[in-house]
Specification:
Elements (H helix, E strand, L loop, with lengths): L8 E4 L2 E4 L9 H4 L5 E5 L6 H9 L5 H7 L13 H12 L2 H6 L1 E6 L7 E2 L1 H5 L9 E5 L5 E6 L5 E2 L3 E11 L8 E6 L2 E11 L3 E9 L7 E4 L4 E12 L9 E5 H11 L2 E5 L4 H12 L2
Antiparallel strand pairs: 1-2, 3-16, 4-8, 4-15, 5-7, 6-7, 9-12, 9-14, 10-11, 10-13, 11-12, 13-14
Length: about 280
């Protein structure tokens, strides 16, 4: 069934046209009924009309898939092939490298940590680190060890520093520029610029330790500066807890979001006719 064929007709500028501003949606309660839907893994470059033809025997029933998966944008709300994904990243961030180096935040890395602790190992931890661990319980409900606690904590940044700077070249850094604290040719620390003028530079997403060592200098793409003072504005992650968090980039975020779109729900084809009839009734009361 063609989706727009059921839309009501309205008069616009003395012309009869389909009223495409009409809106209907599937009830949230229905989408919670797992027995009505089947999980489906979307294949690369597989269009919704192809899936609709295979499953509903009607390519125009792709609107059912869009409805049940709350898809508004028929391109970017669906799983992108590797080629399309790369083009999307380049269009949005300028390059894949830019997306990979643009840090969006930090998250608890429990999903990467498979190590376990003995009871004595857990008891030896400082009190502030014990929150990252949960008991491994035997069949007799006795703790036999500890594993990382599955806590999906996400932070916008780990630390924010204010640096008073004297520029050797250039007048300031640019917003979102990644700058490096250098000791000669050696990298000491990194950060992302959130503010910069001729005398103050504020950096976040800190990796390493920033200091005003006289032999160090702050280097960017087109500028470099000596650091006079370092002041902590905010510290979301204590230095002793850094190992429990991992930064994630814009590329990580976009890639994980795209991968999540592989899995869609298909309304059981036994209900397709019912949904079609209900759509007609709603659009043409």
């Amino acid at each position: 069934m063609r989706y727009f064929s059921n839309f009501p007709v309205t008069n616009y500028a003395n012309n009869l046209v389909k009223n495409i501003f009409t809106r209907v949606r599937i009830s949230d309660n229905i989408t919670d009924y797992s027995h009505v839907f089947y999980p489906y893994e979307n294949k690369e470059k597989e269009r919704m009309d192809m899936i609709a033809y295979d499953y509903y025997e009607d390519q125009y029933n792709d609107w059912i898939i869009y409805f049940t998966n709350k898809i508004i944008d028929p391109y970017y709300d669906l799983y992108l092939s590797q080629e399309d994904f790369d083009n999307y990243i380049i269009q949005k961030y300028g390059s894949i490298t830019n997306a990979q180096t643009k840090i969006l935040g930090y998250r608890n890395n429990w999903y990467l940590d498979e190590q376990t602790l003995t009871l004595s190992g857990y008891n030896a931890l400082p009190a502030n680190l014990r929150k990252y661990w949960t008991p491994i319980v035997s069949e007799n409900n006795i703790s036999i060890g500890y594993e990382r606690s599955p806590s999906d904590v996400t932070l916008t940044t780990n630390k924010v520093l204010s640096l008073t700077t004297t520029f050797n070249t250039g007048n300031s850094f640019t917003i979102d520029e990644r700058v490096t604290l250098m000791n000669g040719s050696l990298s000491v620390a990194n950060g992302t610029v959130s503010f910069s003028n001729s005398s103050i530079t504020v950096v976040r997403h800190i990796e390493g330790t920033f200091s005003n060592n006289s032999s160090y200098y702050l280097s960017g793409a087109t500028s470099n500066a000596a650091i006079n003072t370092v002041t902590t504005i905010n510290s979301n992650i204590d230095d002793t807890e850094v190992v429990y968090y991992t930064s994630y980039s814009a590329f990580d975020y976009e890639n994980e979001l795209n991968e999540s779109k592989k899995s869609i729900k298909l309304l059981d084809n036994r209900y397709a006719a019912t949904v079609e009839r209900q759509l007609r009734n709603l659009l043409n009361p």
